[in-house]
Each structure stands twice: as structure tokens, then as C-alpha cells.
């Protein structure tokens, strides 16, 4: 509401100072900028977690874990937290991520088990299975540029589903950070790139499961303009 009042005042002042042509250009520019900052409500793509016990399982290949040993735990922790906080009637029903990680360590070849067996051994109704297919912070063979990429397939295991040994639904998540090209190592730290990449990935993954707001025009949206003072 305050933002609308400020815009109205700005238009009144502009009308007093500018001629019709200049005012028209100003109003058009302000309208375009306002359109770029619009958020739209988006419903979850999968709403079957509500009221159920849930575990988040992350599978990452060994070469990626060797180079980025905390990636799997970070994704599991943050996605679990989003589900716990934002999915209706899931508060307190999400398995602690450390308990799930400990189970993975204690269970050799856990990712070769039938999908239904995962849900049974973790004793949950739903498993959010995140298979990280690609993860890197630099383009192949170039350590001088930042080009973070995280690609994963998210599958849902329903223990009480028609076929618990098959994913009930799958979703592909493809995230890049930074969103602009040509960012050199002197412009940002590795920690900053990894934090931005994982935040974006976790946000997109979490959005699969609960109602949220997304930018109407993601390519033109500037989040810093919507930060509360």
C-alpha cells in the first residue's frame, strides 16, 4: 500500500513538471518497471506431502562429493526445513536430515534398493528422492570463470501408492548461478557462488511442494527492489 502511495505522489509531481509527451514516457516506464517486479501466486506441482511423514534423500555421485563434500547434506537439510515449515500439516513430520544421512552411511548400496524399500526402512509415508545429475561451479576446464550449475531429478516415493517401487511423479530442476555470464574469479568468492547456487536450487525444489509466489518475469525481476527496509 505504501508503495502505491509513493507511486501516486510521484505521478502527481511529474504531471506538474512535465508536458504531456514527457509525462507519457515517464508513466510508461514506471508501468513497465512495476510489471517487472510483479509476483504471481503459484500452486504446488505435487501436493501429496500434506499430513504425511516425509524423508528427504539426496543421491550425489562420488566424484562430485569428493570435490564438494557438503553438497548432499546441505541440500537435504535445507529442503527438509522448507517442507517442514511450508507444507501444510507437515510440521514435525519430516525426518531429521542427519538421521536420514546416518541411515545412508549405515546402509551399503542403499541407492540400489527397491524404491518401496527406502520408504519402509526410513519408516515414512513419502520419500522425496533428489538425484543430483550435475553439479559444478566452473565451466569444464576453466577455473577462471564462475558458472554454477545444479541439475537434478526429484522423484516422489509413495509408500501407500499403487506401485511403491516406482516414482509417483518426477520433476527436473535446472539451476544456474550467477545468472549472468562472464563472472571472473576476482568478482566473487567460491563460497558466495556455492551459496547462491544452492539457495536457488533449494528454493526451486521446495516450491514443488507448497503454494508460493514467483516473479512474473524471472529474467527481468530484481529481488533487491522488493526487500523490506
In oligomeric terms, what are we looking at? single chain
Query: How do the SSEs run, as a string of H and E?
Result: HHEEHHHHEEEEEHE
How many domains? The number is 2
Strand order of the largest sheet: 2-3-5-6
Give a quick summary of the entry.
The chain has 7 helices and 8 strands; from the N terminus they run ααββααααβββββαβ. It is of the alpha+beta class and 229 residues long.
Task: Describe what you observe in this structure.
With 229 residues, the protein is α+β, with helices and mostly antiparallel strands. It has two domains: 2-40 and 222-226, no CATH class; 44-210, Rossmann fold (3-Layer(aba) Sandwich). Helices cover 40% and strands 22% of the residues. The chain has helices at residues 2-17, 20-36, 62-67, 71-86, 97-106, 115-122, 190-207; strands at 39-42, 54-60, 126-136, 145-146, 148-158, 169-177, 183-184, 212-215. Helix 4 (71-86) crosses helix 7 (190-207).
Helices and strands in order, then pairings?
Blueprint: H1 2-17, H2 20-36, E1 39-42, E2 54-60, H3 62-67, H4 71-86, H5 97-106, H6 115-122, E3 126-136, E4 145-146, E5 148-158, E6 169-177, E7 183-184, H7 190-207, E8 212-215
Parallel strand pairs: 2-3
Antiparallel strand pairs: 1-8, 3-5, 4-7, 5-6
Helix pairs in contact: 4-7
